[in-house]
Design brief:
alpha/beta; six-stranded mixed β-sheet; globular; binds nicotinamide-adenine-dinucleotide; binds (2E,4E)-2-amino-6-oxohexa-2,4-dienoic acid
Amino acid sequence: MAAMKPAHYVNGAFTAAGTAFPLRSPVDGREIGTVPEASRETVDEAVRAARAAVEGPWGRTSVEERCAYLRRIADGIEARFDEFVAAEVADTGKPRDLAATVDIPRAIGNFRSYADLAYGRPERAYPTTVPGWSGSGRALNYTVRRPLGVVAVISPWNLPLLLLTWKVAPALAAGNAVVAKPSEETPSTATLLAEVIDAAGLPAGAFNLVHGHGANAAGEHLTAHPGVDAIAFTGASATGSAIMRNAAAHVTPVSFELGGKNPALVFADADLEEAVEGTLRSSFTHSGQICLCTERVYVQRPVYDAFVEALAERARGLRDYGPMISAEHRDKVLSYYRLAVEEGATVLAGGGVPVFGDARDGGYYVEPTVVAGLPQTARTVREEVFGPICHVAPFDDEDEAVRLANDSPYGLAATVWTTDLSRAHRVAPRIEAGIVWVNCWNLRDLRTPFGGVKASGIGREGGEYSLDFFSEPVNVCVKI
Ligand code: NAD
Ligand code: 6OD
């Protein structure tokens, strides 16, 4: 593959302004390209271009026109599907199959589904009667939604295009201009997206892209910028706090999708085979680098031994998995593998670094790992690792299962494995999480609310929830 050359896209033009930093392949550590770091001036230029777009041709587009643009963008990604897949694989090291069946199709789906949703969205009207009024004594209240203006979108490296477009599509559909900053680790598909948007003919400044790091760099320049009207961020909870501190200065609204320490509850009445396979998938897909991945597994005592043995055996058998995103992240994950042992865990699978005997030995791989035997208070059980590790523990009854699931600073997603339908409906709403999957995991319908409680986020995105965040209701009252 040719060297990756990510570029900023500001006011309808590509530029590689700024000091370049290297982009490394997580598969073997090789340098595969360079990325320009956006300066404060470049970020400022992008925000000004976005403002001009909102006040100019982009601000005058109808929802029908914007939805047509969104469909053109979806078609444009589809037309360059293989290029997008290759770029996502190069940046992240994830298995090609994952990028080709999840990341890129979902990015296309994000644009198409928000085109459908925004186009078909009804507005509300309230016929009002005011007794004692002169004249008709009636009025018509109706509510329209106007865009917020300039929206900053900051995204992480794990599902780079999926998570970027998850926010860009509804923000544009609602009529905002966007300044996006993808993760410094994964700039390539964002650059391809800018090319597709350019070819789709959106007015200059409607979509802008700046590359660079977060703290004290492009990300912070953007989220602290007084010209930004809203911030949609996906990433770590600690970063969310830092962004919120800056946002507070201008009372800028935020939508945050943050970290998780997601529990799985396996009841004794579960289909055990399905629960084992499901937990294998929920813990180890993309090597655990999905915010929805399970890191805490609670199993009802009668099936505990059988479940744990089967899960550990299958984890040991996993072969086709990708690396951690960076050497730094690999070191963090390995530090948790060591911490688990220091805290007294029994390692049932993995726990180390695989040896492949090829170029991948220079990459950032860690073994899929299952540990057990830790108390609820252990750091391994409380802190998000964001790697392929889960801790398994037993429980006795439903109340204890719910208590253990909720005993966490996070509250993003949970899975419940049971064949008892009444139990499923009883347990699911008691779990402190934004999303509860029963006998499945990561089954997505893009119209549903997505987000977390506690340290896992602020607000909900998805379907009308995103369109609500990216717009402001204005009530108009007309006296009849
Ligand atoms: P991160 O928070 O380090 O970085 C995310 C983005 O924020 C990057 O673009 C980064 O450059 C930028 N950033 C970092 N510091 C910043 C600052 N001070 N100001 C402005 N921008 C800043 O997260 P990551 O390591 O890229 O991703 C992993 C984390 O993201 C995990 O905690 C994971 O759970 C979370 N995540 C959550 C969801 C969700 O939907 N809830 C989805 C994916 C990832
Ligand atoms: O599926 C989605 O819409 C979504 N936001 C997934 C987030 C995954 C976290 O890594």
